[in-house]
Amino acid sequence: MTKTELLRALARFKQERIRGLLIEIELEEKVELYETLRQLVAETIAAHRSAFVDSLDWEVGDSRFKPDFLVHLFHDELHDKHLGAGDVSDLARWHTEAELAEFLELMTTLLCRIAALGIEGMRLNPAPTPCSERAT
């Protein structure tokens, strides 16, 4: 993929006023998912180890007001905070094509693995595209 294609693919993980990339997990009712998500993210990052991936910060968050969670990957020094939804200009400025490809692979794998949890009533944003063996 070209850098432009990679940026277009990564834009679906970009949310307004959020630094880095995000997967939102919306649930119909509260499910104890925090530790499961932390373990899933840690395992996925460990499986994708590289100098670039190791430089990323990540967090799992839950909402006090809704039964929702998020998975957030970012790099404080490199990602602008106040960009519009889908604006990946910060990624274009600071990351190489190879790093963008790693970021896309990591985010896509995380999305597929979260979808594979199969929780009833779960909606993901962005919605997963058909997942392959990545979800295992």
Strand content: 15-25%
- Rounded to the nearest angstrom, the distance between the terminal CA atoms is 24 Å
Q: How many strands, what sense, and barrel or not for the largest sheet?
A: 4 strands, antiparallel
Number of domains: 1
Strand order of the largest sheet: 2-3-1-4
How would you describe the overall organization of this protein?
Helix content is 38%, strand content 15%. The protein is of the alpha+beta class and 136 residues long. The chain has one domain (3-127). A four-stranded antiparallel sheet has the order 2-3-1-4, covered by helices on one side. Helix 1 (3-10) runs parallel beside helix 5 (97-115). The longest helix has 19 residues, at 97-115. The radius of gyration is 14 Å and the shape is globular. The two termini are 24 Å apart.
Question: Layout of SSEs?
Answer:
Layout: H1 3-10, E1 21-26, H2 34-47, H3 51-55, E2 57-62, E3 69-74, H4 89-94, H5 97-115, E4 123-125
Antiparallel strand pairs: 1-3, 1-4, 2-3
Helix pairs in contact: 1-5, 2-5
